[in-house]
What we know:
Blueprint: E1 2-3, E2 13-14, E3 21-25, E4 31-39, E5 43-48, H1 57-61, E6 64-69, E7 72-84, E8 87-98, E9 106-108, E10 112-117, E11 122-132, E12 135-138, E13 149-154, E14 163-172, E15 178-185, H2 187-217
Antiparallel strand pairs: 1-2, 3-4, 3-6, 4-5, 5-8, 6-7, 7-8, 9-11, 10-11, 10-13, 11-12, 12-15, 13-14, 14-15
Amino acid sequence: MRIKRRQADLPPIELPxxxxxxxxTRPSGGRLxxxxxxxxxxxxxxxxxxxxxxxxxxQLEGLVLEFASARGRVRLRGTVTVEDRDLLxxxxxxxxxxxxxxxxxxxxxxxxxxxxSGRSRAQIQSFSVDVSGGGLLLAGPDTLKIGEEVxxxxxxxxxxxxVIGTGTVVRSDLRGHRAISFDSMTDxxxxxxxxxxxxxxxxxxxxxxxxxxxxxxG
Length: 218
């Protein structure tokens, strides 16, 4: 099923498939990890993956479903009904919004990252494999679950203040890596991160030029 954008020059957005991980944002701002249980011609059946109190009619009316697509983070609304305690059905889907229209540049960067996960916010020491303006790939741990929300502190350069934010685990691989999509970060930290990525790109280009010059000069 595709939902058309209001802008005529943009292609329609493909909705998530069955078993895809999504998140639900309540009007109060709280987020619930969820998964697509069924996708019908014009409806989505969504399984809430964490125990929660029954949602009130007002909460159901203001519920927003968010998921990652190739075009960015997509938010949508609809008429939400309760099928069972942990099953919600979205119909009459509308108000599609792409939060990130372009792909972020991704650079290889190994940096220390402290991750706080779970209700106890247990502290886990890890490091980044690569970084972009929209997320990072963590070396681990493999205990992080798809759909789990985490807080993180990433040190860009030794002695500097860490970049702090929250994110959602959106993907894993056979090597135990965990992809984190950023949910929130201060404007100052986001600018610092973008500047760091830009400097990494410049360093990569310089290394490439040095290697090319060495081959021609040798």
